[in-house]
């Protein structure tokens, strides 16, 4: 996951990402936990919530920009720069929590990440996470793909959005036992008249890496216009999110 984040804009305009993380936190059994990792902690807001739940938390992220904000806002929390697919900790923890991160990891690297997670949990430890699930942002990716194709360009969805069955099998292959899983739609309001354009600019990076700025702007404007019927309601843009929320235990 090699992304240079505009961490201030992310915190200001996309704060819903961590606000929705609250529902995931509720899956943690805090009676049986003292220590936690927030994997892909970003700006640390959810690490702060884990700490407020009484957990001794380590935040891990690969983005120095996001970690700078996390360290500024939560100076009492230990934040470490590391990649989710290869992180290691000195001492296994009771809980590994993650929100809106796993879909950034390529499918063929997921088993490496789950292996690191398994190695970093104590026996009986909990993995609790939410990620984009099967069908996530289907309308947005469909329109982007059409806009690329109209220009003779190829579009590949730069994320991994698995089904429950597919991801449960991967987790179990790495030696953990799935105890909870749900896949659900969560249309999410975006900020401002340019909400869809801003969302695409913030999150869809790799497909545009060989596209000139003018064509990129054209594609983004055209995609937003073509999504208006489906995703602009009563003056507000929505992202067609589908969430995969799961809990697993290391037996
Ligand atoms: C998500 O949280 O589902 C997501 C966010 C940004 C890009 C892709 C997916």
Explain this structure.
The protein has 251 residues and is α/β, with parallel strands linked by helices. It has 10 helices and 8 strands. Strands 1, 2, 3, 4, 5, 6, 7 and 8 form an 8-stranded mixed β-sheet that branches. The protein is globular and about 50 Å long. It starts with 6 loop residues before the first helix and ends with a strand. The mean pLDDT is 95. The structure holds benzoic acid (BEZ).
Describe the structure using short key phrases.
binds benzoic acid; alpha/beta; 8 strands; 251 residues
**How are helices and strands ordered from N to C?**
HHHEHEHEEHEHHEHHEE
How much strand? Answer: 25-35%
Q: Kindly report the average pLDDT value.
A: 95
Oligomer: single chain
How does the overall form come out from the CA principal axes?
globular
Identify low-pLDDT runs.
none
Characterize the biggest β-sheet.
Answer: 8 strands, mixed
Bound molecules: benzoic acid
- Structure annotation, total helices: 10
Helix content: 25-40%
Offer a concise description of the structure.
By secondary structure, this protein is of the alpha/beta class. Helices cover 38% and strands 25% of the residues.
Tell me the layout of helices and strands.
Elements: H1 7-13, H2 16-19, H3 21-25, E1 35-39, H4 45-52, E2 56-61, H5 64-73, E3 78-81, E4 93-99, H6 110-119, E5 121-132, H7 138-150, H8 164-173, E6 177-189, H9 195-203, H10 213-231, E7 232-233, E8 236-249
Parallel strand pairs: 1-2, 1-4, 2-3, 4-5
Antiparallel strand pairs: 5-8, 6-8, 7-8
InterPro entries: Methyltransf_25 (IPR041698), SAM-dependent_MTases_sf (IPR029063)
GO molecular function: methyltransferase activity
Protein name: Methyltransferase domain-containing protein
């Amino acid at each position: 996951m090699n992304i240079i984040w505009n961490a201030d804009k992310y915190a200001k305009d996309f704060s819903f990402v961590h606000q929705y993380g609250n529902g995931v936190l509720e899956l943690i059994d805090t009676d049986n936990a003292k220590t936690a990792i927030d994997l892909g902690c970003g700006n640390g807001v959810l690490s702060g919530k884990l700490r407020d739940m009484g957990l001794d938390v380590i935040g891990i992220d690969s983005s120095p920009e996001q970690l700078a904000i996390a360290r500024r806002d939560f100076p009492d929390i230990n934040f470490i720069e590391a990649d989710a697919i290869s992180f290691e900790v000195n001492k296994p923890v009771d809980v590994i929590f993650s929100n809106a991160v796993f879909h950034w990891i390529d499918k063929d690297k997921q088993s490496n990440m789950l292996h690191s997670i398994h190695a970093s949990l104590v026996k009986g430890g909990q993995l609790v996470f939410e990620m984009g699930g099967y069908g996530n942002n289907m309308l947005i990716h469909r329109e982007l793909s059409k806009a690329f194709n109209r220009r003779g360009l190829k579009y590949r969805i730069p994320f991994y959005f698995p089904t429950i069955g597919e991801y449960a099998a991967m987790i179990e292959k790495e030696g953990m036992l799935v105890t909870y899983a749900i896949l659900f739609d969560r249309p999410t309001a975006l900020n401002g008249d340019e909400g869809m354009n801003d969302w695409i600019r913030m999150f869809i990076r790799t497909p545009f890496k060989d596209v000139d700025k003018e064509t990129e702007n054209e594609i983004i404007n055209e995609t937003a216009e073509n999504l208006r019927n489906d995703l602009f309601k009563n003056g507000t843009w929505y992202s067609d999110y589908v969430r995969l929320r799961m809990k697993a235990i290391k037996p």
